[in-house]
Amino acid sequence: MRVFLVIFCLFFCVSAAGAQTLKSGDTLTITVLQDPKLDRTVVVDPAGEIAFPLAGHVRARGLTAQAVENILKARLKNNYKEENLDITVAVAAAPKEIPEEDLKPKVFITGEVVRPGSYVVRQPTTLMQVIALAGGVGPFAAKSRIQVRRRGSGGDETIFMFNYKAYEAGNDLEGNIKLRAGDVIMVPERGFFD
To answer: Per-residue pLDDT averaged across 2-27, rounded?
Structure first.
C-alpha cells in the first residue's frame, strides 16, 4: 500500500511540474533530435517570448513547456523531411525571488574607472560624486568624452556629455548633473588623438 501511495504522489508531482506555465525569466532547454545544431538554452524575455532559429519569435509566457514544444514542431516541420520531428522543451530554471538589494535605486558606472559597477543612490547624487565613489577615473580615461545615458519613460534614451577636464579647470560646472536611478555613466578609453 505504501509503495502504491509513493508512486501515486510521484506521478502527481511530475504531472503538476509538467503543467507549470512559463513566465518571463524562465530558462528553457530546447533540443531537436533531427538537427543538434539547433539545440540551445533560451530565456523567456520580458515580453514573454523566446527567439528560436527557423521558428522566429514564439510566445511562451502563460503556456506550458509542452505547448511551446508543439508550436516549435509546427513551425519547424516544413524544414525537415521526416514527419515526426522530435523536439523537447524543458524548464531548466525559473527566476528566483528578487533580492531586496536589487530593488534599491542604483546608478551604474562602466569603463575607465577604478571600481566600475552599480552604486545605490539614496539621496540626490551628482555625476562627480559617483565618479568619486567609483575611485575616480582611470589613467587611460577619455576625460573629455564621459557620457551619462538616461532612459526615459517612453523608452527613448537621452545622452548627457560631460567634460571632466573642463570641470577640473572650473569651466563646465553645469555638466555635473544630478543623477537619477537607472542612469548609466560611461567613461570611455582614451583614443590615439585624445
So the answer is: 57
Q: Give the CA angle between residues 94, 98, 102 to the nearest 5°.
A: 140
Q: From CA 140, how far away is CA 147, in angstroms rounded?
A: 16
The residue with greater pLDDT, 41 or 3, is 41
Give the whole-angstrom CA distance, residue 128 versus residue 135.
11
Q: C-alpha grid cell for residue 115? A: 571600481
39's grid cell: 539545440
Q: What is the mean pLDDT of the chain?
A: 82
Phi/psi class of residue 70: alpha, beta or left (left: φ > 0; alpha: ψ in -120 to 50)?
alpha
For residues 129-142, give the mean pLDDT: 92
Alpha-carbon span 148 to 185, nearest angstrom: 4
**Measured in whole angstroms, how far is the alpha carbon of residue 100 from the centre of its chain?**
18
CA separation for the pair 10, 2 (Å, rounded): 12
Give the burial string for 111-125 (b: 16+ CB within 10 Å, else e): bbbeebeebebeeeb
Q: Per DSSP, what are the bridge partners of residue 137? A: 113
Phi and psi at 183, nearest 5°, equal -60, 145
Alpha-carbon span 89 to 15, nearest angstrom: 15
Going by C-alpha positions, the residue among 191, 182, 189, 106 that lies closest to residue 148 is: 182
